[in-house]
Fold these 3 entries.
Entry 1:
Amino acid sequence: MSALPSPTQSERARLVLGIETSCDDTSVAILERGQTLRAHLIATQDVHRLYGGVVPELASRAHLELLPRLTAQALAEAQVTPQVLTAIAVTHAPGLVGSLVVGLAFAKAYALGLGIPIVGVNHVEAHLHAAALEHGDSPFPAIALVVSGGHSELVHVRAVGEYRWLGSTLDDAAGEAYDKVAKVLGLSFPGGPEIDRRSREGRADAFEFPRPMLDRPGYDFSFSGLKTAVLQALAGREAPYDAAFVADVAASFQAAVIDCLVARTERALDDTGARALTLGGGVACNRELRARLTAACERRGIAIRVPSPRLCADNAAMIALLGAWMLDRGITSDFSLDAVAALEESGLRTAGG
Ligand code: KG4
Ligand code: ZN
């Protein structure tokens, strides 16, 4: 019997199962031809609310339970059998190592059983491009701002795969600062949405919180000093704090974080002559941040690409998208993929110099 011709590159990308388990969201997507989402499920693990933050061991266990169920449900929603999937794309870096390992083991076993290729996707790279699912191809060069519980990254995107890292946080990520400030105010986890909501009733000028790093050159962020300033504002008061006080602290804190993010991003846009700005990460759900950056782009006459909240937060659709692109470019299947916890060790920051 003569060997079957190997599938063309684009045939491998025809129906990709995306798997995301890098932190505390378990997500599965089925993406057709890099464009049509046939199914997209995100299970947010509520168990972490009890602890006021993500507990890595519990996250791994929950991924283990949720992944097979979500995959079965995604296939049912897409009305396809596993046998018609053409490839699997799975997050392999960066993230909580135990959580990544669960996704990788599941993806490898599934791909091996079906005899289809598997590709490993970098989670932060997927955030850089998630907007393409709704907005199509980006004009380049672009600036991408990825702000989440684990990252605050400002990246000059010259093309897909060609990145120049402009800035990162020197301490806490923007979302982490939101979550920590919410915790000291007695608000529930995750803190970003709560602070965002409360700040609408507060006065942004009630407290003069610092805007760290703004007087310095470059594009890095720092949020730990801001967190300390919030703690100082609470000194001498007893919890639980009254709602008006919480709203004022929330509004003043949010104004400071957003001033920092916006100022750095505007500088990056002006210095690089970017033609578009792309947002990603859970903090990009913030209405005020979206509004300020939209206005900044309008003033410059450049495109702003903001994913819907579901695609800002951790999701498998963006993983399937990057996987489809990799398969199209001819990346070979890799069953020896390993989990890589740190962004610095994932190779992304040096991709394309
Ligand atoms: O991308 P994501 O879902 O998960 C990772 O951390 O990778 O981001 C979650 C983060 C949390 O820190 C959460 O507090 C923050 O995004 N967040 C927000 C808002 N919604 C979520 N921060 C500010 N404003 C929001 N509306
Ligand atoms: Zn993320």
Entry 2:
Amino acid sequence: MTRVRAVELRLVGLPLVRPFRTSFGTSTEKVCILARIETEHAEGWGECVADLEPDFSSEWNGSVWAALEDFLVPALLRAGDVSAEDLDRVFGSVRGNRMAKATLIDAFLDAELRERGESLASYLGADRDRVACGVSIGIAETTDMLREQVEGYLAEGYRRIKLKIEPGIDVERVAAVRADHPDIMLSVDANAAYSLDDVDVFRALDAHRLLMVEQPLHFEDVVQHAALQRQVRTDLCLDESIRSAADAAGAIELGACRIVNIKQGRVGGVLEARRVHDVCRDAGVPVWCGGMLETGIGRATNLALAAMPNFTLPGDTSGSARYFLDDITEPFVLAPDGTMGVPQGPGIGVTPREDRLEACTSRREVCGT
Ligand code: SMG
Ligand code: MG
């Protein structure tokens, strides 16, 4: 049990090495909120997965900052002696706002673990110290440009290639990449861009032996995903639709997916992510760690999560160089065998480099003493 003395919020921005285009837009810069929590004995870091706009989710940096400043940080400062497991209760009067809550829950847990000298990976019950990594490739201008990018990432060692797709830029691209690489682990992610009227697209994709089709339909429509899963052979995976362990249990029960993408920030932090993992494990559903173009802070958190036993598929835990010229932490480097080391130090095992943090910060606020 420990008391939170202060919370420092920062808005940081880092240019991406190449634009990242999805079915809902193009990002050229990573802009996110970092929280640093000071407890009586330690400090901890949390990174928010929200973005500049409410496109991937209904939360965005502006809503997260407001939720933190107006409700969540004051609740934490008022809470007195607590442990990370108490925070769901501390934040219980605020509905939703999972990405905002995750930022504080992860930062608090990091501080708690640093205080007792335990790594996040060990706390979560990780069963390995390296994890297999995949890469998510944005929608490219042309098929040939995509093929070239795939070639480059495979040469770096990535163990699974995920292609972003949208209506009209799908089957032909997948066919081209599959023809180049008959045996790679290949998947697609539609970010909710299709409807059940597009079932023929997914039937056509069946021919290309994809590992999965991620979030093909509307983010709120689990029943329709179940209807689609009955009509295609390829495993469906849900991302946006899974906001909690309860969502995961419901989706699995309905037959809406056979694989789950776990993003700890999307589900309200690593503690809920562990519950999602457990629900899926008990149902025999494999999971993998999603990514939100995190800086080294969020990446360290993701790597610890990805080392849990039911994370049996390579995640979107790519090397820092795939995103940034100069990360906020020391860079995470992909080994030639396509794996990355899980941080072993106390907590998430990394901290921002002071000079980089200052250079990237555009807004800062300290709450508490
Ligand atoms: O972190 O490498 C990464 C990005 C992985 O494709 C990725 N994320 O829907 O899974 C997803 C997307 C959401 C990111 S939108 C900016
Ligand atoms: Mg996704």
Entry 3:
Amino acid sequence: MSVQARDLAVEFAYRFGRLPTVSRAPGRVNLIGEHTDYNDGFVMPAALEFATLTAAAPRPDRRLRVYSMIMDEARELDLDSPPEAGDGDWSDYVFGVALMLEESGRRLCGADLVIWTDVPIGSGLSSSAALEVSCAHALLTAADLPFEAIETAKICQRAENDFVGMRCGVMDQYVSCRGFAGHALLIDCRSLASRNVAIAPNVKLLIANSSVRHQHAGGEYNARREACEEGVRLLRRHLGPIKALRDVTPDQLYAKRRKLPELIYRRCRHIVTENARVLEAERALGASDFVACGRAMNASHVSMRDDFEITCPEVDMLVGLAQTVRGVYGSRMTGGGFGGCTISLIETSAVDKASQILTDGYRIATGLDADIFVCAPSDGASLIPV
Ligand code: GLA
């Protein structure tokens, strides 16, 4: 990591003629709890070792000059005359965060920024949150303002909701700000409290990237959110003043199933059963009951596939392959859906065999290459030595 930070600092010095600080913010993988975050529910992600690095140094004026090494593109923005809307590209995440930090009352100074990442982009591993949080950390550092993890996560989420136009929840930004090495985080997305959940050394989190991303994923994501909101509106008539699907138990929902259109009922069923599965998975991991944790993960995948309808044949294939391997406790799609990655909870000794079976089986079935790697949960955002 320090070599990458040094490379970034050299690039920065070459472009801007002085030395930067370097902020790091990780991508994430979610063990369980999909689409529950914007329903005030529970999620259990871990921060990845893959991260976005932002090199930054303050400027005496209020201009932001940003260069992305990945895109090989530069952009500028004047904080004193912000645009109404973004350009519809990567710079929206950077400038959206800057504008929302200012809107929250934090007065920024101008800054030069150089950005680099090794989070696979568009793979459901939260490259967007890693970009937002690393820029937020860099801009706050440049302005000599404190980095408050949870506040920053909410500001980055607002940038994505209101400037980028993706109505995401807070999970990705939260864990990118707050992740804890060697642990997953059980996040209560209503209270925004979290608990660290240790990943025992005899199990690993194996990630398989399907390398497919279906079109319209953003629109489908927002549509799922609307279906949940519609469910809450309809259920309120029967259950009283509930705020979110978090307030509904599986039994209550089942009792009211005839009051809801069938599709809305299935969308809601995914959320209320998923919340219960997250808590069960946390309990099971804490008790080293990997069989029970894996069972919850497998059930989560079925629920995403059949009720929430956010999986696709390629990720179903990877999950199915993983579930055939001895030593794999459970496997499911991770992230927003419509492609992206799977996560499997697996005995350490079975990693090599499972990787082989996933790689070969996926190629035979789809003609595609799946990238396979073991997740080593990392810490959340921080400055790193150059
Ligand atoms: C995306 C969003 C998150 C969350 C997941 C699904 O990653 O950014 O807020 O809703 O999808 O669990």
